[in-house]
Write a structure and sequence with these properties.
Belongs to the FKBP-type PPIase family. The chain is an alpha+beta fold. The chain has one domain: Chitinase A, domain 3. Helices cover 34% and strands 22% of the residues. It contains 3 helices and 7 strands. Strands 1, 2, 3, 4, 5, 6 and 7 form a 7-stranded antiparallel beta sheet that branches. Strand 1 and strand 2 form a beta hairpin.
Length: 188
């Protein structure tokens, strides 16, 4: 029995020693590297800036606080038409029509993209919600609140739109929040 106790004690001592050696390595996995920290701080800074720009747009255009909904992601929604059927979910294929505009004071409501000029018969874009890369994150977020025939104005902060890089082909500057008039024309 003494041998069993000292064998158990030795095994326990070794386990504790191993954990003491591995603990710094395991905790290091949860720490941010410099690049991740800088990216997180940059996004946090722009969340504040974008929030002020969106609220400024609402003020300039007489949009009252009770007329919109704010998603946790920072995307704002104004419902123009409710639509029918079930709410769209991630992985569903849909067709949408939209017009994308700037919301900064300098470019207030200037259109920079729309599906009506995309040379398709439906004048729309077909996509899979939360999978297609042809639209921005904020659009995916909004679609998951919509139904067939639904139409919403969606106000998208820069980090849910084109981000730090902007989108030069469309004239979207880096860190530019935007808004879209979005309609779901088909759920496939």
């Amino acid at each position: 029995m003494k041998m069993n106790i000292s064998t158990n004690r030795l095994a326990l001592t070794r386990l504790v020693a191993l954990l003491l050696v591995l603990l710094p390595l395991l905790s290091a996995c949860k720490k941010e590297n410099d690049f991740q920290k800088e990216a997180r701080e940059y996004e946090e800074k722009h969340k504040i800036i974008d929030e002020a720009l969106i609220q400024g747009y609402f003020t300039r255009n007489g949009i009252a606080s009770g007329s919109y909904t704010r998603l946790e992601s920072g995307v704002y929604l104004i419902t123009l038409a409710e639509g029918t059927g079930a709410t769209i979910v991630a992985g569903q294929k849909v067709q949408t029509k939209y017009t994308a505009r700037f919301l900064s004071q300098e470019l207030n409501d200037v259109v920079f993209e729309n599906t009506y000029d995309n040379r398709t018969l439906c004048k729309c874009v077909e996509l899979i919600v939360d999978q297609s890369t042809s639209i921005i994150k904020g659009q995916h977020e909004a679609l998951k609140t919509m139904k067939l025939g639904g139409r919403k104005k969606i106000f998208i902060p820069s980090y849910m739109a084109y981000g730090r890089g902007g989108y030069a082909q469309l004239g979207v500057l880096p860190d530019e929040p935007v808004w879209l008039d979005l309609e779901v024309t088909k759920v496939l």
